[in-house]
């Protein structure tokens, strides 16, 4: 039986001079690249313009990074944001908040769908979000695995046989801890396969908003409980009954419940092949 796992992986793959390629950056990029290949396949299967995925990729990259950066400083270091707002877009780009990324992505998809609705492509907000959550779940798995490669967002001390000792993290080294990053990565990977199966089986018969609801409840419901196994990110959280990640997860789960309830009350649009695509209201 394992006593613990010594984790001393170098976060750098290689470097040339001052430029380095890190596992986190590679996994972050792979999440987007593989995800867009999947979205291209989905668009083709459902008769949407495959070229639109290029535009969608731009919306997703910009909104994810900006949302995650703004969210980190807004939720965890507001005094830094107030003192220097440009810190959001200046290196080093340390600090990304998944709740901020979620807000950014939903906002950008609303803007994207508004543009596409005017072109009568049938890409409504809920149609797009129900598909994009498939690849966001995959990207989440990649990003959390990147956190593991960075030895960051570590768990609390534990004596479970699969505990990790993060040798590359000077603050938390030499004590077996929960591999919280791995828990979240695997959870996102499982969700990716569930959502992909759900779409492949039901597609247009899927009530609008149901997959978005499943995503929000799964990701942030589990996030709420995983936070009990993780070290707080900033000192002020030590004095809170729930940490910031838990407080932010509650409205996300409630929003997921709303979309599930709404989807069960909304008729499923029936496509008529002899008519031009219509815009949902």
UniProtKB/TrEMBL annotation:
<feature type="transmembrane region" description="Helical">
    <location>
        <begin position="125"/>
        <end position="146"/>
    </location>
</feature>
<feature type="transmembrane region" description="Helical">
    <location>
        <begin position="180"/>
        <end position="199"/>
    </location>
</feature>
<dbReference type="GO" id="GO:0005886">
    <property type="term" value="C:plasma membrane"/>
</dbReference>
<keyword id="KW-0472">Membrane</keyword>
<feature type="transmembrane region" description="Helical">
    <location>
        <begin position="23"/>
        <end position="43"/>
    </location>
</feature>
<feature type="transmembrane region" description="Helical">
    <location>
        <begin position="244"/>
        <end position="261"/>
    </location>
</feature>
<dbReference type="GO" id="GO:0008961">
    <property type="term" value="F:phosphatidylglycerol-prolipoprotein diacylglyceryl transferase activity"/>
</dbReference>
<keyword id="KW-0812">Transmembrane</keyword>
<dbReference type="GO" id="GO:0042158">
    <property type="term" value="P:lipoprotein biosynthetic process"/>
</dbReference>
<feature type="binding site">
    <location>
        <position position="144"/>
    </location>
    <ligand>
        <name>a 1,2-diacyl-sn-glycero-3-phospho-(1'-sn-glycerol)</name>
    </ligand>
</feature>
<comment type="function">
    <text>Catalyzes the transfer of the diacylglyceryl group from phosphatidylglycerol to the sulfhydryl group of the N-terminal cysteine of a prolipoprotein, the first step in the formation of mature lipoproteins.</text>
</comment>
<protein>
    <recommendedName>
        <fullName>Phosphatidylglycerol--prolipoprotein diacylglyceryl transferase</fullName>
        <ecNumber>2.5.1.145</ecNumber>
    </recommendedName>
</protein>
<feature type="transmembrane region" description="Helical">
    <location>
        <begin position="55"/>
        <end position="76"/>
    </location>
</feature>
<keyword id="KW-1003">Cell membrane</keyword>
<comment type="pathway">
    <text>Protein modification; lipoprotein biosynthesis (diacylglyceryl transfer).</text>
</comment>
<dbReference type="InterPro" id="IPR001640">
    <property type="entry name" value="Lgt"/>
</dbReference>
<feature type="transmembrane region" description="Helical">
    <location>
        <begin position="96"/>
        <end position="113"/>
    </location>
</feature>
<comment type="similarity">
    <text>Belongs to the Lgt family.</text>
</comment>
<dbReference type="Pfam" id="PF01790">
    <property type="entry name" value="LGT"/>
</dbReference>
<keyword id="KW-1133">Transmembrane helix</keyword>
<keyword id="KW-0808">Transferase</keyword>
<feature type="transmembrane region" description="Helical">
    <location>
        <begin position="211"/>
        <end position="229"/>
    </location>
</feature>
């Amino acid at each position: 039986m394992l006593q613990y796992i010594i984790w001393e992986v170098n976060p750098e793959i290689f470097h040339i001079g001052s430029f380095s390629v890190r596992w986190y950056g590679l996994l972050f990029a792979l999440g987007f690249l593989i995800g867009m290949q999947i979205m291209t396949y989905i668009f083709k299967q459902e008769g949407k313009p495959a070229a639109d995925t290029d535009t969608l990729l731009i919306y997703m990259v910009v909104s994810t990074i900006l949302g995650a950066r703004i969210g980190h400083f807004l939720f965890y270091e507001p005094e830094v944001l107030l003192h220097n707002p440009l810190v959001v877009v200046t290196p080093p780009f340390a600090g990304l908040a998944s709740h901020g990324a979620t807000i950014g992505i939903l906002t950008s998809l609303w803007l994207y769908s508004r543009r596409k609705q005017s072109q009568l492509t049938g890409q409504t907000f809920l149609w797009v979000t129900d598909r994009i959550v498939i690849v966001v779940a995959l990207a989440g798995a990649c990003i959390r695995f990147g956190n593991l490669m960075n030895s960051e967002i570590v768990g609390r001390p534990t004596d479970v046989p699969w505990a990790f000792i993060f040798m590359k993290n000077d603050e938390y080294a030499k004590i077996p801890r929960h591999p919280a990053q791995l828990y979240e990565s695997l959870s996102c990977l499982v969700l990716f396969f569930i959502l992909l199966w759900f779409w492949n089986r039901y597609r247009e018969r899927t009530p609008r908003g149901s997959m978005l609801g499943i995503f929000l409840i799964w990701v942030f419901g589990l996030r709420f409980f995983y936070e009990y196994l993780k070290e707080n990110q900033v000192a002020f959280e030590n004095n809170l009954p729930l940490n910031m990640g838990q407080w932010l997860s509650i409205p996300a789960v409630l929003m997921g419940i709303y979309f599930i309830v709404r989807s069960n009350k909304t008729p499923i649009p029936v496509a008529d092949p002899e008519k031009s695509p219509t815009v949902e209201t």
